Amino acid sequence: MSLTIEIPREYGYVILTATSTYFLTLWHTFRVGGYRRRARVPYPIPYAYPTTSGDDPSLPEERKEHKGLTEAEYLFNCAQRGHAHMLENYPIVLSSLLISGFEYPLTASALGLGWIAGRWIYAVGYTNKAWGPNGRGRLKGGAPHWLFMLGLLTLTGWTGLKMVLPAGLKGL
Fold this sequence. Notes:
Elements: H1 11-39, H2 61-64, H3 71-103, H4 105-126, H5 139-164
Helix pairs in contact: 1-3, 1-4, 3-4, 3-5, 4-5
């Protein structure tokens, strides 16, 4: 038995939302590059590492707050981790957006845009001391991006379920 998929005109919003995720990825990339330059962490080293134990009494003052890292190194690590966290979730979100958008294009697009906003807040908060110490500012974007991602995953599951349900139950 085959299934015909009709792409609704509103799927264009899904494609535009997917395209905007690429710009989010580029923004993260350039942002991490700036922090990398300021921290003087050469490629291909992925993170700044303390030169000594954070508890070392001979540690200079500038390195005590962040357990052996300078402020610039610490912020680079936060930016790099925020970027890595986004990349860890990106395939799930993008595939869910594209699949659920066949059946629910406007809802999927709205959830995708919400995820993008949450990821932006997460990244900015991670490196903004005014939003919280020790990277805790990321939590301001943490809950929203998880909720939007969960919404996309739920829509994707529901889309799949509707494809395999008997014809009489598809109107649910």
